[in-house]
Amino acid sequence: MVTIGDVARAAGVSRSTASYALSGKRAISAEVRQRVNDAVLRLGYTPNAGARALATSQTMVIGLLAQFLEDEFAPAMLEYMLGVSDTARELGYDTLLVTDGDGASALRRITDSRMVDGLVLLNVAQDDVRLPVLRAAPQPGALVGLPGDCSGLDVFDLDFEEAGRMMVDHMHRLGHRELILVSQPEHVVERGGAYVWRLQDAALQQARLRGVTLHAVFGESRQPAVGRSLHGLLDTYPDATGLLLNNEAAAAALPTVLHERGLTAPDDLSVIGRYSDEFARVFSLPYSSIESAPDRLGRMAVRQLVRRIESETGRAEPYVVRFVAPELVDRKSTAAPRT
Amino acid sequence: MVTIGDVARAAGVSRSTASYALSGKRAISAEVRQRVNDAVLRLGYTPNAGARALATSQTMVIGLLAQFLEDEFAPAMLEYMLGVSDTARELGYDTLLVTDGDGASALRRITDSRMVDGLVLLNVAQDDVRLPVLRAAPQPGALVGLPGDCSGLDVFDLDFEEAGRMMVDHMHRLGHRELILVSQPEHVVERGGAYVWRLQDAALQQARLRGVTLHAVFGESRQPAVGRSLHGLLDTYPDATGLLLNNEAAAAALPTVLHERGLTAPDDLSVIGRYSDEFARVFSLPYSSIESAPDRLGRMAVRQLVRRIESETGRAEPYVVRFVAPELVDRKSTAAPRT
DNA sequence: CTGAAAGCGCTTACAG
DNA sequence: CTGAAAGCGCTTACAG
């Protein structure tokens, strides 16, 4: 292994001078800088990450905690992960991916051992057991997903309340008076998936306001249950003319279900989902949707995290809770109801 | 930060004794061991990962290189990633996720700086530019995907040749005499996605052997092109009675396409894909498929990698190239052709 | 503008 | 069975 000592010797300078020449942290004569750079190239020197971390207390790694729970939809998670990983790299950080079932103890392991400079948590629950660990950690943390208690952390999420209202208003404006809202499975709610009820409660309230009947139900997230459950709903509420989906798995399953029933959107049924444009493409989903902006949320979380990591003042800045405004991407799956 | 020095002082022993008590690498009196353990618990000590890495030259991290290319299908990649990450954790390793566009220089960065003890590469191409870098690295590497040159590396992949033959034979046995094989986009082939032609060539040969007409074509991987291309194929080969898919995006788009044409599998068309059971569930795909076993391949790669990392003899063992035998998962999407 | 030295927090021969 | 010391490869005050 070639060390900075080798570089220094080859350049005929001391190790400290070699180090400073590379970091640029103090003035170095042009000639010495040149000799050091030449030596680096000639020997193929790269600083040892562990040694640097030990000396500087900076690892240049951020931890990404992603939980892949049985009843959650993995492909949706991937988009957040890539947003985080790509942004981290742009800002000079590598990403330690943690997918442990037990997120709290994994988090403790990573933070206590100083493997990372900061953390991004995905899929954050109302009363997330990882948060007390994260608050107690010496590293700053950023969340994608709104918990009950945001203290001491930066939080980024879609404005699910507004998304719920938008869905209802859009349908109401077209003339719909009876709608079905399919949320995530009840398990997700029980586990504290706050976005489920944030969207649902707002939608229900808006429906009351507009005089619209809204049947709010929990969906499923795995085949074949998700398909069966959609069939059941359409059987149960035959007069509903619009379908709102806050459930990626249900959205992915809907084309098949509609096909099996011989229905077409928007002729027979108007449909609005809540997922990203990328998700729509990947799953060939022809339904209008509220853009969930996973890449943007991942970027925002990492940017803020790195700001806190890198600046003294950043550490002390007040914590932020930032909501992305929902946007409706029109894919022509809604229309006036059949009369 | 609490260090092993703090633990040693609290336990009234030297730092080396504290270290040995924790590692168990030499005999320690029961009483001292007890005092050290108590101190660890009381102070909440966790070893500093960077310091340990520096002292031992072991990071207990493996690097996972995943390339998300524009014309490849991300959700399929996720399954491999989780197989790797979960297995790594079981074996005591964390996972550094690298998703850089430029895989070769990212790989060099990770290996030169000694951030990882070993590497798993996904999505390996015939003439993968990352392989020379990996071979030159001091850490061992394992591949998921078969390159042209396997020297110096452990390689794991699905037996795509056998998969191609199985698809053709299965259809032939049911009485089909004209089939369409939809592969990945031509870009994937040009970039060296060897599995595309490994399956295709074997399928073509088997078709000749059986007297079956096989139209082998490149598909697309993004909406809306993938749907249009499937429509085009069904228009071009109206007499084909069976469809073989070596293209996850095409499989995901097929339900919608068949719906739009008013076709049903297997009544109007027999279909076999090549994807995992998990993928079938996630995308609600009702088609029989050759199991691509991403989790198993990820596990195998990590197991072998860790064996090489951890044992002296493991380092020296001959390199392996191991193929997973394809299995056909029957979802009742094939039948005798309509006469 | 440059160098000698201390220190980051571990592990592990070397001594006893 | 235990301790004092060296060393892993860096960075960064401290001196000049």
TrEMBL record, chains A, B:
Do you know which Gene3D superfamilies this protein is assigned to? Answer: 3.40.50.2300, lambda repressor-like DNA-binding domains
The record's keywords, sorted A to Z, are: DNA-binding, Transcription, Transcription regulation
Q: Which GO terms describe its molecular function?
A: DNA-binding transcription factor activity; transcription cis-regulatory region binding
The source's superkingdom equals: Bacteria
Residues in HTH lacI-type domain copies:
2-56
Q: Identify the PANTHER family for this entry.
A: LACI-RELATED TRANSCRIPTIONAL REPRESSOR (PTHR30146), LACTOSE OPERON REPRESSOR (PTHR30146:SF153)
Q: What is this protein called?
A: LacI family transcriptional regulator
Species assigned in the record: Jiangella anatolica
